[in-house]
Amino acid sequence: MMAGSIAAAAALALPAAAQTKQTAKVPAHNVVLVHGLFADGSCWSDVIARLQASGLDVTAVQNPLTTLDAAADAVRRVLARTDEPTVLAAHSFAGTIISEVGAAANVSALVYIAARAPDAGEDYAELGKRFASAPATAGIIFDGDEGRLSEDAFLNDFAGDIPRARARILYATQQPFRKVLTQAKTTNAAWREKPTYYAVSDADRTINPDLQRFMAKRMGAYTISLGASHLSLISQADKVADLIKLASRGA
Description:
Low-confidence stretches: 1-20
Strand content: 15-25%
């Protein structure tokens, strides 16, 4: 009951600017995908196949997961390959990255898949404390300043609705992250300027679904809810791809 009360109170505290933003929607042929922690660009494979089948030009960024500056620069380099309208989509932590770089002139829309969406200069850890801690948090293991998920947390909290054999492959290929990456604060909140879309994972054990709903509402995003784990981009690739295609149509 307390968690629900906190979530309700948070929803009432939304900044007016997020409710009144004026954005122009335009169609785009290009899509750039950014992965989050515990993964690499291949986690988008199921979505990529569906977007390419629709005729979209897709690139998955290999996020270095070292510092926010390095991750942002990796996305900027891909965006710089064209001046044509481009949909920028992020999963999980990568929402921080597209919030930082997504104000670029050629970005037509931002799509958040169970993703962080911090405001400029916001302490995301403090924001997260307004909601119940997600179970996966307890499964993060650090070797010095390099973090990863334990096998149990990965299989049950990160990839809970993925067939176990595939989830074990994903676990074996998870990319470690540097602690400093998750402590960095953004200087921009591109979602205040761009059309935004958000897919909430209702069964998420990595980012609290109530926190996801709060961020989506704060952005004024077009929002869908998926009965999925954190890895909805795999378990519900059709619906995630459909949301990105909606953004690409400027709808």
